[in-house]
Design a protein that fits this description.
globular, Ubiquitin-like (UB roll), five-stranded mixed beta sheet, 20% strand, Creatine Kinase, Chain A, domain 2, single chain, alpha+beta, 448 residues, 2 domains
Length: 448
């Protein structure tokens, strides 16, 4: 805390945003004067914040009080001094500090998404392994729209025109939004966010930002803050940025591809490669674990009703858990690399996923394969779409059913977390089903 106090004083910080991530990935917390922050060395929040839905609702009372203390007590949120960042868009010198959640006895709270990722990383540490990830975040820029019933439209760029058609990897199309991206890069640099390449993706005004590889917890923190940063930069330039998995009809969905590898924590050598550079058994077991358990853990990577609109056959989003080398039709792609840099790219998570949970789930699936010695299927050399080896749930309802009955997830993530997560997502799904869509009004209103 002394180092943190010095950091705040050096930057003349006057306010601190104390943050935790809820299940959806929304930043919850308090804004406090720096003097009060230092005096209290953290904050208290109702534990129920971790069972809040994206609509602000909660799970039914019987379940609510079985997962939480009946007195609705506060949890203790302690700042992580390695997760302190400036807020470069704030009018006054402000810091944002990510907190960890504990009960009054000092035990990590199971419902906390950040604690879940820490639990998975501890499993690897016990084996002497160090996982490394490199996320890729896709998103759309759109016109600001106040009416949620209206379809989203591409924003107007520097040329004064809307983008039309597909502009994959177009430099000029990306440059249409140079002022916005310059602010984004400046603000990310000010926060120390490790972003790398910017590309124009396949969709209209769809972009992708790649993060440099590194520690999974640090990168989950950075994605959590990057979403805030990009939205602020977009608002400054009078456009909107969305990480919805499928925000626009007839356009590609947005993914959060996760590249993951595992090193020996002592030597730093990849455990995915043999001495001769060939694929190790641990690497194949890691793939086997992803194939076996992703169908059960899918709600952690595709958490919303909208997430499943992205999974359509013969589109840019894979609908399988096949694997192959340099094969983008597979849900699990092995990019071409040196043996030391051998990795698997999990292409199934959506950009709408909570980064803490998507990374935790992806690493846990791979860990279970390594722990249980699971062998993968044969690699696909060609179009994985033609294999039709789906094995994935088709709807959020099906996915939640499978997650709820997965013994391994309950064992490693805990009963309270699995039960609470499934319950929150079911409430959101019920809310969704109460809304009548424009498709229903257009094709059923006067026809049936």
């Amino acid at each position: 805390m002394k180092d943190l106090e010095s950091w705040l004083k050096e930057r003349r910080i006057t306010e601190v945003e104390c943050l935790v991530s809820d299940i959806t990935g929304i930043a919850r917390g308090k804004i406090t004067p720096v003097s009060k922050f230092m005096a209290e060395k953290g904050m208290r929040l109702p534990e129920s914040v971790l069972l809040q839905t994206v609509t602000g609702d909660y799970v039914e009372d019987d379940l609510y009080y079985s997962l939480l203390d009946p007195a609705d007590i506060d949890m203790v949120c302690k700042p992580d001094i390695s997760a302190v960042y400036p807020v470069p868009w704030a009018l006054e010198p402000t810091a944002q500090v990510i907190h960890d959640c504990y009960d009054k006895m000092g035990n990590p709270i199971e419902l906390s998404c950040r604690n879940q990722l820490k639990r998975v990383l501890a499993l690897y540490a016990e084996k002497g392994w160090k996982p490394v990830v490199a996320p890729e975040m896709e998103f759309y820029l759109t016109k600001r729209c106040e009416d949620p019933d209206l379809p989203l439209q591409p924003p107007i760029g520097r040329s004064g025109r809307q983008e039309t058609g597909r502009q994959s990897f177009s430099i000029d199309a990306a440059n249409e939004f140079d002022p916005l991206f310059e602010d984004m890069y400046d603000w990310c640099e000010a926060q120390g966010l490790d972003i790398d390449t910017l590309i124009h993706e396949e969709g209209t005004a769809q972009m992708e930002i790649n993060f440099r590889h590194g520690d999974p917890l640090m990168l989950a923190d950075q994605i959590f803050l990057f979403k805030r940063t990009l939205r602020e930069a977009a608002l400054k330039h009078d456009v909107a940025a969305t990480f919805m998995a499928k925000p626009i009809t007839n356009e590609p969905g947005s993914a959060m591809h996760i590249h993951q590898s595992v090193l020996d924590a002592t030597t730093g050598r990849s455990v995915f490669a043999n001495d001769d550079g060939s694929m190790s058994q641990l690497f194949l077991h890691h793939i086997g674990g992803l194939q076996r358990f992703i169908p059960e853990a899918l709600p952690l990577m595709a958490p919303n009703v909208n997430s499943f609109r992205r999974f359509l056959p013969d589109t840019s989003a894979p609908v399988n858990v096949e694997w192959g080398e340099e094969n983008r039709t597979c849900g699990l792609r092995v990019p071409d690399s040196t043996p030391q840099n051998r990795r698997i790219e999990n292409r199934l998570p959506g950009a709408d996923a909570n980064a803490y949970l998507a990374i935790a789930a992806s690493l846990l699936c791979g860990y279970l394969g390594m722990e249980q010695g699971l062998n993968p299927s044969a690699p696909v050399r060609g179009r994985a779409f033609e294999r039709r080896n789906m094995r994935l749930p088709f709807t959020l309802e099906q996915a939640l059913e499978r997650m709820e009955h997965c013994a391994e997830l309950e064992r490693y993530m805990g009963h309270r977390f699995v039960t609470g997560y499934v319950a929150v997502k079911r409430v959101e799904n019920e809310n969704f089903k109460q809304v009548i869509s424009s498709w229903e009004r257009e094709f059923l209103l006067l026809s049936v």
